[in-house]
Amino acid sequence: MTALEWVTGLAYLIASTMFVVGLHLMRSPASARRGNLLSAAGMVLAIVATFVYAAVTFGGNWIGWTALAVGLALGGAFGAISARQVKMTDIPQLVSMFNAVGGGAAAAVAFADFVHRIAESAATGAGEGHIELTVSIPIVLDVLIGAITLSGSVIAAGKLQGIIPGKPIVFPGSRILNVLMALIAVAAGVLTIVLPPSALTLSVLLVAALAIGVLMVLPIGGADAPVVVSLLNAFTGLAVAMAGFVIDNQAMIIAGALVGAAGTILTLQMATAMNRSVLSIIIGGFGTGDTVAPAGGPGADAAGVRQISADDVGIQLAYARHVMIVPGYGLAAAQAQHEIAELAKILTDQGIDVKYAIHPVAGRMPGHMNVLLAEANVPYTQMLQLEEANPAFDTCDVALVVGANDVTNPAARRPGNAVSGMPILDVDHAKSIVVVKRSMSPGYAGLDNELFSNTKTGMLFADAKGGLADIITSVKEYVAN
Description:
It comes from Glaciihabitans tibetensis. The chain is α/β, with parallel strands linked by helices.
């Protein structure tokens, strides 16, 4: 081992340690920012070490270095601009596109390495020798997983953005076609491993895997969107780990394994939070996707619903002792996180205990509500997860639901419907309930929310941003008096 290889390996080890410690710090909202920065610093170290090693080892190939510099500049600029300008409602789409880029890049690395080995064998006159299994198997798995992640994440982003309908898309023969593509992918993968290296068999595997990604995500409904984003994130990690094995890069192996493991654990936790298996989610067919409804009235399905005004809400909140806020996707869609934070601060300044009840699958990606509230500088100590929040509803004076639907539906406690068995926030245990919503339209699951017709519930039909602004004005008046 040369001195350069030793130093590069040490840099990778330090970077990997930073990844592990950073991921550990991300477990708590209090230390998540430091964990993110530490992990980012580790990635910078790994990239610098790789550049130095490549510069010394491969010398001045100006074509390759130019292509690398251009790609780094374009990709870095696009990523930085996108991350800074993206709206909170579009974060899930951005995460999906990051998953797509990660999986696609990993597959490209494996494919390029495979083609390079074929060309190298031809140039040295080695003939049609087999590639060792320790390399050929990771190449096949990398191309398979990476391509599925690439196409599946693009479709998921399209669904989240509304370019592709959020409802399950199933056409005659789709299941059979999916199975056929899987069989072709397996056959092409096996042939790539056992036969002399051929770009044709790997290309067939690539095309089949891309088709599988599309066919896997199309039938998945909007209700499963958070779990799908998490699952594809795990796929990205696995693809990167396989790419690390292909090019013998320890940093990629460790980083990919961490992402894959974390994504898998999160996927299983979110599936549990929806009382659904990962297999049933992949099979798809659940959820109707977004429905945009006009604000301003209850609509036709308002039997038994009690409509209230912002002034009614204001007086309840001003004289409450314990308030629980339940944020949902409607809050993100209206970009009303700053209004809800302002309202909570006004109440807190008056000595009122305010907490936020966060459901694991509220929103459209893992941790969507936590990120949304953190942007508005909501103290992490006020955010309660499902297990902590539910007992608190029993002593809650007012539960303020803003844009949440399926995660508060009491119908989940009864068998025989789309959300049966799904752990929900026990909002109906509060003494009084206020729901801020544009209309009576159902959530992703396509099921009417029984909470809306509860005798303790008052419905404020308004856009979350406008409705909260009116509530803030009302609360200020009562507090001043």
